[in-house]
Amino acid sequence: MAVPLASVKMALGISSAAYDNELTALIAAAEGDLRLSGVTCYEAEDPLIVVAVTAYCQANRGSDVDKRRIFQEMYKSAKRNLMLACEYTEVMA
User: Fold this and answer.
1) CA distances in angstroms from 6 to 40, 82, 93, listed in the order given
2) Mean pLDDT, the chain, integer
């Protein structure tokens, strides 16, 4: 249930395939971090998940430290909200 690379690239405004390997690794890292935090129940195309993963990717790439810090806070906030929502942390019957 990986967030599609195309969704993240579109959100980041990237059309080149030059960053595909880097972004694929960052998507996997973001999803791993969400799983470790208890966020385990979601669809890959869920807008809240895509926003969180995109923020994680943006926070962990580039050289603008101030922008990276802003995206890191955005990711933390999105992750915190997902962790508090039972729809993302409990298996629904």
Assistant:
1) 22, 22, 31
2) 93
Q: What is the Cα gyration radius of the chain? A: 13
pLDDT of residue 93 exceeding 80: no
Tokens for 73?
Answer: 């806070």
DSSP 8-state code for residue 4: P
pLDDT, tens digit (0-9, with 9 covering 90-100), for 53-76:
999 999 999 889 999 999 999 999
pLDDT in tens, 4-21: 999 999 999 999 999 999
CB 39 within 8 A of CB 83: yes
How many angstroms separate the CA atoms of 56 and 37, rounded? 14
The token duo for 78 is: 């999105």
- Contact between residue 48 and residue 82 where contact means Cβ atoms under 8 Å apart: yes
Q: How far is CA 35 from the centre of its chain?
A: 11
**Amino acid identity of 9?**
K
